[in-house]
Amino acid sequence: MAEAAEAEGMPRLEAQRLARATIMGAGALLAADKRPPTDLRREVTSPGGTTEAALKVLLSSNGLTRLMARAVAAANKRAGELAS
Asked: Does this model's pTM top 0.90?
C-alpha cells in the first residue's frame, strides 16, 4: 500500500504512515467489534468515496480475493511439503 501511494505521488514517509494507520485501524476495529468484517467494511465505506473506489478494484474478479486464494494455496502446499 505504501509503495502504491508513493507511486501516486505521496511522499514516502506519509505513504508509510498511511499504510500503517490503515492496517492498524482495521485490525483494531476487527478486534473491538465482533460483527462480520463485511458488515464493518460497509459501515466505514462512504458511497462514492475513496475507500469504495479502492474496494471496487480489490473485490473485482481479478483482485485481492483471487490473489489471497493463490497465496493461501501456496502456503498450504508448502506446509504440506514441510510436514512430509
From this structure: no
- Given a contact cutoff of 8 angstroms between Cβ atoms, the answer to whether 9 and 2 are in contact is no
Torsion of CA 31, 72, 57, 5, to 10 degrees: 70
Asked if residue 25 lies in contact with residue 8, where contact means CB atoms within 8 angstroms, the answer is: no
pLDDT in tens, 37-80: 999 999 989 999 999 999 999 999 999 999 999 999 999 999 99
For residue 48 the three cell numbers come to 462514492
First to last CA, the chain: 36
Residue with cell 506519509: 14
Report the C-alpha dihedral over residues 74, 75, 81, 84, rounded to 10 degrees: -150
